[in-house]
Structure formats: structure tokens, C-alpha cells
């Protein structure tokens, strides 16, 4: 009985700190950040970066390993998204901070009426971002690309907390889901297609994959500028 009480107390304390952290980030808002975070959080705003990575892969690697890598990438994102959204969310049923049924929702700053779905644990955005990051790190082992993806994923997750649609705990568990799914996906990729996987790893004559990093930086800079002048509704 005492163990159950201690566990309940620990979880309650953890949930309280999680809510406090979320409220602290959400309260640090202004019109400019509202615009920027709303745009940055969009699922389709980063299509140019994805396309840039695909183009540079086809330009620097044989078509077969690229196609197979893209196939495993699609499988990974599907696995991350479905694990987070379809399997785990209904199981835990944790309301998003901005959900009207959540007791802390009156204290959440809502941006353009955006509250997300009903449940938010774990974050599918986080699972997808970190899953892609870990998979591409395992496959390519490029330092600049990995650092760029880390900054991109970190800011993406920060934007979700800023918008009040996720707790920090949602984000952290999404990261773990992404890491697990990416590890399984890459293990199968490496196990079944060892030679194909090795063709994508760096060697003395391999490319640096700078273009996707440059596109990501340019697009982020554009969003920072656009946020000054425009208010978007999503």
C-alpha cells in the first residue's frame, strides 16, 4: 500500500511539474512568436526540405539504395504516427493542455483558436520528427545533417508546447517512441539489406549532404521574416 501511495505521489508531482513547465513556455508569448510558431508547427511547411533531401540523395547515390531508404522512411513515419496516435493516445487518454475539458485550459494562451485534437500523449509530431532524425543519423552518419535535424526537431517540439497543444512529457515520450521505431526500422533495414545500407554511409568520396541543411536554414529565416508581417490562420 505504501509503495502505491509513493508511486501515486511521484506521478502526481511529475504531472504538476509538467503542467508548470508547459504554462511557463506558453505564457512567454507575443504576436510575432504566435505567427512564427504556428507556421513552424505546420506539417506541410517543411516539404521543400524533404524534397531537397530526396533530390540530393538521388544526385549522389545509386537509385536502388535511395528508393529502398525512402521506402523504409515512409514505413518509419507511418509506424511512429500510428503508434503515437492510434495505439498509445487512446490507452493513456491524456487531455491536451488547450483542450476545453482540461482544468488548466483557462490559463493556456490559444493561438488562432488552435487547440489540436482531444488527446496529446504522446506527441505524434515529436515521434515523427525524432524518428526521422534518428533514422537518418543511423543511415547517413553526417554530422552537419544530424545537427541541423536536431535543431529543427527541437524547435518543432518547442512550438508544440508554446502553442499549448502538448506537455513536455508528451514531447519526451514522443521522442522515445521515435527512437524505438527508428531503431527497429533501421535494424530491419540493416539486417535485410546490409549492402544497400552500407552504400549510404560516408566514405572518403561521399557527399556532405549540405543542401537540405541550407534549405532548412533558408526556410526558417523566411518564416522569421514572414511572421513579422502576416498573421496566418491554420
Automatic annotation (TrEMBL):
Keyword Cell division listed: no
Keywords on record: Membrane, Transmembrane, Transmembrane helix
SUPFAM superfamilies: Acid phosphatase/Vanadium-dependent haloperoxidase (SSF48317)
Transmembrane segments: 39-58, 65-88, 167-189, 209-229
Phosphatidic acid phosphatase type 2/haloperoxidase domain location: 70-186
Protein's UniProt name: Phosphoesterase-like protein
InterPro entries associated with the record: PAP2/HPO, PAP2/HPO_sf
Amino acid at each position: 500500500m505504501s509503495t502505491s501511495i509513493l508511486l501515486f505521489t511521484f506521478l502526481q508531482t511529475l504531472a504538476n511539474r509538467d503542467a508548470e513547465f508547459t504554462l511557463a513556455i506558453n505564457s512567454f508569448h507575443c504576436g510575432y512568436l504566435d505567427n512564427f510558431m504556428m507556421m513552424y508547427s505546420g506539417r506541410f511547411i517543411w516539404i521543400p526540405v524533404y524534397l531537397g533531401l530526396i533530390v540530393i540523395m538521388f544526385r549522389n547515390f545509386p537509385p536502388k539504395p535511395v528508393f529502398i531508404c525512402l521506402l523504409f522512411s515512409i514505413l518509419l513515419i507511418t509506424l511512429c504516427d500510428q503508434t503515437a496516435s492510434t495505439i498509445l493516445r487512446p490507452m493513456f487518454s491524456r487531455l491536451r493542455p488547450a483542450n476545453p475539458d482540461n482544468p488548466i485550459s483557462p490559463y493556456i494562451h490559444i493561438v488562432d483558436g488552435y487547440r489540436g485534437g482531444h488527446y496529446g500523449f504522446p506527441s505524434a509530431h515529436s515521434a515523427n520528427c525524432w524518428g526521422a532524425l534518428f533514422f537518418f543519423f543511423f543511415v547517413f552518419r553526417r554530422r552537419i545533417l544530424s545537427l541541423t535535424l536536431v535543431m529543427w526537431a527541437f524547435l518543432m517540439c518547442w512550438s508544440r508546447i508554446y502553442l499549448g497543444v502538448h506537455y513536455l512529457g508528451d514531447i519526451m515520450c514522443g521522442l522515445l517512441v521515435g527512437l524505438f521505431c527508428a531503431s527497429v526500422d533501421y535494424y530491419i533495414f540493416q539486417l535485410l539489406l546490409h549492402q544497400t545500407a552500407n552504400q549510404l554511409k560516408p566514405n572518403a568520396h561521399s557527399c556532405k549532404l549540405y543542401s537540405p541543411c541550407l534549405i532548412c536554414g533558408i526556410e526558417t529565416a523566411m518564416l522569421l521574416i514572414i511572421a513579422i508581417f502576416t498573421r496566418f490562420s491554420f
